[in-house]
Design goal:
Radius of gyration of chain B: 27 Å
Largest sheet of chain B: none
Number of strands of chain B: 0
Number of strands of chain A: 2
CATH superfamily of the largest domain in chain B: MetI-like
Structural class of chain B: mainly alpha
Oligomer: heterodimer
CATH superfamily of chain A: MetI-like
CATH topology of chain A: MetI-like fold
Helix content of chain A: over 70%
CATH topology of the largest domain in chain B: MetI-like fold
Mean pLDDT of chain A: 87
Order of helices and strands of chain B: HHHHHHHHHHHH
Number of helices of chain A: 13
Mean pLDDT of chain B: 85
Strand content of chain A: under 5%
Order of helices and strands of chain A: HHHEEHHHHHHHHHH
Chain lengths: ~300, ~300
């Protein structure tokens, strides 16, 4: 048989198998984590979500502190990063081409710095700085600069470039005609941005927000260094806390039996949260992508 | 997109006078005066400059910190000797070699299938339902927490093999790389004009040869950039290596069967320790990994940049 007769179908199926690998891995994550966390679910049930205890001696585990820490750090990080990312993206879009390229590259490099380095920097530079700040302000500061707010600050720095990059692309996609019309009726740049660009690209902007959220949610190393790893629901901005990812990184190596299963359950919760956020991000970004395709 | 000149802000019509003959009962105008609108515009402009200055400033600050504190530790000996516990003079040689092993092996596992997968999406799957689903799952996988990948690989490789291994670390990194390479390959192949495909097929080449020898060659620069960026991205990943490659005191001689030293986990261990000499070594290692990651990034962006850019 000539090579041309069989090479094409083989090539085609080989490529398809490789592509299918991606979907299979996605499913395998869920199956495997659900399987490995079975013991924890059967033992604690839905109580796992609301229990605040984490006691390796009595083998009682609850996920609430880790979930609360994750949600709080993520939300605060987003609140800090979002306005900064939006105005940065606005500036980059409006800036002269050379400046916007330089700034764009700088923001991309910020995203490329490994998270462990953010962790080191946070622990050895930002934490002492925060500590001094609170002492100077006379705020009660039992955790010495470590905690929820510091973690959120680090996270916001890490997600800023991601959100900014998506927003920059979305803003660039706005038809120039719309902007020109807005300027033509006498809008200032900010009014154009707020009333025209933002409304036109709202879905893409939301997509960018969810990308940033997903990134902050699963971030491990930076938070591990500066959160304090306190298994308690944080009650104030300066409280030590923990996140799901940090809890996993901290405890998994020594964990046995039920604790390991509980950690897998935490992993499953994190996976589901990240999955939902990514699905939302893709949903919104796809809508803008489709709009771009129609033109 | 061509830049738009900054427009001259038009004055809105003057507010109606309260005692004017018409428009009774309109009250205060619903719009702000020009002064306020301009002020607001300038404030936002100032804010955005400040935001960018903050972002760039923090980047410079972080890089300066690792440069200053890392260079204290850096020397040829530091790069070539084996790591040692507190109180002994050690380096990061084993971790450096281990990181190269783990990362390169990850690229070896991930890149060929990922490129095939990208080819399928661009050349065969196109807009079919299956292709859309797989594209979607790749996008979702790109945002998966890396620590979860570590858990997953722990269960499928470390538990059955009975030991942490560098191989498991590579597999974890490969899983992180896979969707990234797959999607960039697809994007790059899609940019190749259809006329090239058609001319190849018209010459009587098989689909397979057209794809590999014409299309992939045309898109080569973009694909190399994508692979390099993916490698840069995973080489600094720590979380998935914590439970898979872990750390080892010696040189990475048992890559397939035993724990393998690597720089990210070394930084994690040393950064968490209370000893100053280890912390300094951690800074040195941070400098090395940051230099590695950023230089791959810059090389990828500059050397293999598309001509269009």
């Amino acid at each position: 048989m000539r090579a041309s007769a069989w090479s094409d179908p083989v090539f085609r199926w080989l490529c398809m198998a490789c592509a299918a690998l991606c979907g299979l891995l996605m499913v395998a994550f869920f199956v495997q984590l659900a399987f490995a966390s079975g013991e924890a679910w059967s033992r604690f049930g839905l109580n796992f979500f609301v229990s605040t205890e984490w006691d390796p001696v009595r083998h009682v585990y609850g996920a609430l502190p880790a979930i609360a820490g994750t949600v709080c750090t993520t939300v605060i990080a987003l609140v800090i990063a979002l306005p900064l990312a939006f105005v940065s993206a606005l500036f980059i879009v409006d800036a002269p081409p050379w400046l916007s390229r330089v700034l764009g590259q700088a923001v991309d490099l910020l995203a490329a710095i490994p998270s462990i380095i953010y962790g080191m920097w946070g622990l050895f530079v930002l934490v002492p700085l925060m500590d001094r700040l609170w002492v100077a302000l006379g705020v009660d500061n039992a955790f010495g600069g470590i905690g929820l707010l510091t973690s959120s600050l680090i996270l916001s720095l890490m997600i800023l470039p991601y959100i900014c990059a998506v927003m920059r692309d979305v803003l660039r996609m706005t038809p120039p005609m719309l902007r020109e019309s807005a300027f033509g009726v006498g809008c200032t740049r900010w009014e154009t941005a707020r009333d025209i660009l933002m409304r036109y690209g709202i879905r893409g902007l939301l997509g960018g927000i969810f990308i940033g959220l997903g990134r902050a949610l699963g971030e491990t190393m930076a938070v591990l260094f500066v959160a304090g790893n306190i298994m308690k629901v944080p009650t104030g901005l300066l409280d030590g806390c923990t996140t799901i990812a940090a809890t996993l990184a901290n405890n998994f190596a020594e964990a046995e039996g039920v604790q390991r299963s509980a950690l897998f359950a935490l992993g499953l919760i994190l996976l589901v949260m990240a999955f939902v956020i990514q699905v939302l991000a893709q949903y919104y970004l796809r809508m803008t992508g489709a709009k771009r395709g129609e033109k | 997109m061509e830049t738009i000149e900054r427009p001259v802000v038009a004055e809105r019509p003057a507010a109606p006078q309260a005692d004017g003959p018409t428009l009774v009962g309109l009250g205060r105008p619903p719009y702000k005066t020009l002064f306020w609108r301009k002020l607001q515009d300038n404030l936002v402009q100032g804010f955005s400059v400040a935001a960018l200055a903050l972002a760039v400033g923090v980047m410079v600050w972080i890089l300066a910190t690792i440069l200053i504190r890392g260079s204290e530790a850096l020397s040829w000996d530091f790069l070539t000797t084996v790591s040692a516990p507190h109180g002994f003079k050690g380096g990061i040689g084993n971790a450096l070699v281990g990181t190269l092993y783990v990362t390169l092996f990850a690229a070896l596992i991930a890149v060929p299938p990922a490129i095939c997968a990208g080819i399928w999406l661009a050349e065969f799957g196109k807009r079919s339902r299956l292709a859309d689903t797989l594209r979607f799952s790749a996008n979702v996988m790109m945002g998966m927490p890396s620590i979860v990948v570590g858990l997953f690989v722990y269960m499928i490789l470390v538990v059955p093999m009975g030991a942490n291994s560098g191989l498991a670390g590579s597999v974890a990194l490969a899983i992180l790389m896979f969707p990234v390479v797959m999607r960039t390959t697809e994007d790059m192949l899609m940019m190749v004009p259809d006329t090239l495909r058609e001319s190849g097929l018209a010459l009587g080449l098989t689909r397979c040869r057209v794809t590999l020898q014409i299309i992939c060659r045309a898109a080569r620069n973009g694909m190399v950039t994508g692979v390099l960026l993916a490698v840069a991205r995973v080489s600094g990943e720590t979380a998935p290596l914590l439970f898979t490659a872990q750390f080892a005191k010696g040189w990475p001689t048992h890559f397939f069967t035993g724990p393998t030293a690597n720089i990210p986990v070394l930084i994690n261990d040393y950064g968490m320790s209370n000893f100053e000499d280890l912390q300094t070594a951690g800074w040195g290692a941070s400098l090395v990994i940051a230099a590695l990651v950023l230089s791959i990034n810059i090389i990828a962006r500059v050397a293999f940049r598309d001509k269009k850019d």
